[in-house]
Specification:
- The protein is α/β, with parallel strands linked by helices and about 280 residues long.
- It is about 30% helix and about 20% strand.
- It contains 6 helices and 13 strands.
- About 50% of the residues are buried.
- Bound molecules: zinc ion.
- Zinc ion binds next to loops.
Amino acid sequence: MRVYISSDIEGMPGVNNIDQISPGGIDYHRARKFMTDHVNTAAVKAFELGAKEVLINDSHGMMQNIMIEDLDERVRLVSGNVKSLCMGEGLQEKFDVCFLLGYHPMNGTRSAALDHTMYGVVCNEIRLNDRLVGESAITGLIAGAYGTPVALISGDQSLKSEIREFFGEIEFVQTKISQGRYTATTLHPKLVNNLLADAVGRAIEAHTAGKFRPLRFDPPYKFTLRTNNTGQADAAEVMPGVVRETGFSLSFTNDNFLTAYLGLYSMIMLATTGVSTKLGK
Ligand SMILES: [Zn+2]
């Protein structure tokens, strides 16, 4: 069995403010330790249950948060950015099962610590065929395109509601109860990691029993990006194949999911070049 783990930081236990999620923040070293311990717990348990391989993709910010020296030495770690599949980088190698750890709800979710969708500076919302999607659904669909099912996700209680709509009854480990964007009642990281190890056991058992299916929607795939200002949309509109829907929004459509996703990611990257500091956005 080959296991793939994508890990963000905002959904980790003990993480609830901006200072914890950016290198240079006074509490960042604590958050990256929580993240490292959390993913390592899942990897160690997977090896214990017979996994031959575990690939971890660091999926937050500049994507070099996880400290490899504190991981089980059997894991492989994808570190750094830019990478075309972003939070799903490495899935090209085709794994048996996928875990999304420390994930967070989509931008605009109430009672959700550090809610955002991909690049928060430019992404107000992302829709796939008019349905709002967050990072968990997008990464799950990338995995699905490679035939890999998601069996386990961890994050706060609002993420739990979000993922049920897309993934059904997969394993979920709750890391905290978010009261607001910067406030959460967190569970102790050690307790969460004990719960995670148990959940990995159940997820692998259910996966072996053939319980999970890769997440897939029917084509065509139309991604619509709503930016935070019109300058960002102006920049993204430069890309061939993009349709400018409104002042704020653009779309890209393709019958191949991965091509549609790469269109979305390209729009986002271009939109970041339209960020102006002069108007305060
Ligand atoms: Zn994120």
